[in-house]
Amino acid sequence: MLVIALALGCGGRDEEAAALPTADRPPTASTPPERRDPDVGRVDPEASEPLLDELGEAPTPEEEAAAEAMPGPLAPRAAPARGCALQSPAPMRLLTAGGPPAIVALDDGAFLVAAYDQSALVVVRARPGALPEPIASIPIDGAPPREAAPGMARTAPQEITLAFVDGHGRVLSATLDPTLPASAPRANALADAGADPRFPPAVRAVGTRRAVAWTDGSSTPMHLKLALLEAGRVVATHDVTPVAGGGAAPAFVDGVGDVMLLFLDPRVGISVAHRVVLGPDGAPSPTEVARPLNLAAEPPAIAAARSNVTGRTWLAYAAVGNLATRAVGLVDAAGTEMPSPLVPGVGYGDPLTIAATSSGRTVVFAAEAPTAAAREAPHEIRMRVVDDRGAGDPMVIPGPATDPALARGQDGLIAVAYRGGGAVMVQFARCAE
Q: What is the pLDDT of residue 375?
């Protein structure tokens, strides 16, 4: 049995990697430290057309210190060996207020970003050097959750599938055509109640069907549910929770190959990562143990991506570090080796979130990291390339920056969407492949 602590603050290569040379670390943002607050940046619920109105608002003085309302062109920089380099001189502000984002890449070099605002799920197009463009706004019944991102995937050349949770714990899905701006897609219910808003749904195309997985928190332990949709209608629903176990935090593995769903059976001490492979019609295989994970944090969070060359799948998970600090561990999803620190455990405070994308031979992770031990210390985002030798040196997006989401475009440009001071931002980077 694997019982090891992520001693993630003790010397060695990873501690040296966390201390970036001055030239590689962007200047610290002047925004004062702040804790993540679900009420930060709430908009007036009676305001009309909040999506269209807020994109035309001038940034406040505080926002000007962290973002530019009018984006500039990219500033190309070569990615270092086993690392990433920012291509945008400043972050682009997409929404003045919003919850954790989701992001997908389009064929034309643009990206779609989705996030909850006060009363709707908002979708915005982001393109380097261009102003953000509103694409869709889906009203949500009840106060929408802001603890987790919506689920979103590009499921056909001109189809984006969204999955989200409303204020009553219902799971809903909607599709939109990204070439048609200012639309209001119709949402269809997949589950009438019980969804845990702490965990984002996971979405993937499987042939002509769409698979949506979510965490059902209506019982103890939690259960992992999977719905299959065809032409927008539910054709099957499965409970893939292991016998005598639980299930939470679903994530589809990014990259080519089998459609694989990973999730955790969270426990005190040793948690278990499970895998389910979906067949050509979306039918799930029997749930199998992928590997044990030591000291997974509460609430659990995972992200996984597969090398498109070697087929190796890497899994990152929110972990408990030395002295109960917040940390992120990295493992081979099918291995038995000890975890290595993607984010060393040096701080306390809010939970850490993680994102992953496949990038050719390598995979890229973006993870929140505390900037200091104090609970009130702001978080930053660290992007790291992972290959067969492990994780390369981090590239830092300075804080306050939380809730990263990643998408890789066809030309290799990677967009990272995140929350900065309550606003939804995006930056662009290139990483070694």
A: 93
Q: In what order do the strands lie in the sheet with 233-239?
A: 202-206, 209-216, 223-230, 233-239
pLDDT along the chain (433 residues), means of 10: 41 39 41 43 38 52 50 86 94 94 96 94 94 93 84 96 95 94 86 96 98 97 98 96 96 94 93 97 97 93 95 96 93 94 92 94 96 94 96 96 96 96 95 92
pLDDT value of position 262: 98
433 SS3 class: coil
Structure tokens at 398: 């300075």
Q: Which two tokens stand for residue 350?
A: 């809010």
Integer CA distances (angstroms), 374 to 33, 39, 371, in order: 11, 22, 9
Contact in structure between 134 and 113 (CB atoms under 8 Å): no
**In the structure encoding, which two tokens stand for residue 149, read together?**
């991102």
Q: Which long-range contacts (CB under 8 A, 24 or more apart) does 309-312 make?
A: 309/360, 309/361, 310/361, 310/388, 311/257, 312/388
* H helix or E strand, kind and range, residue 69: none
The Cα–Cα gap between 55 and 58 comes to 8
| Distance separating alpha carbons of residues 210 and 152, to the nearest angstrom | 11
3-state class (DSSP) for residue 61: helix
Which residues pair with residue 248 across a beta bridge? 264
Eight-state DSSP code of residue 45:
T
CA terminus-to-terminus distance, the chain: 34
Among residues 211, 111, 134, the alpha carbon closest in space to that of 171 is found at 211
Nearest to 162 by CA among 133, 193, 183: 183
The span from the CA of 342 to the CA of 59, in Å, is: 34
pLDDT at 57: 60
Q: State residue 51's pLDDT score.
A: 42
Predicted TM-score (pTM) of this structure? 0.84
Q: Looking at residue 64, what is its pLDDT?
A: 54
Four-point Cα dihedral 120, 126, 132, 137, nearest 10: -20
> What is the DSSP track for 274-309?
EEEEE-TTSPBPPPEEEEEEESB-SS--EEEEE-TT
* Tokens of residue 260, six digits: 């694989």
Burial pattern 321-331, b for ≥16 Cβ within 10 A else e, equals beeebbbbbbb
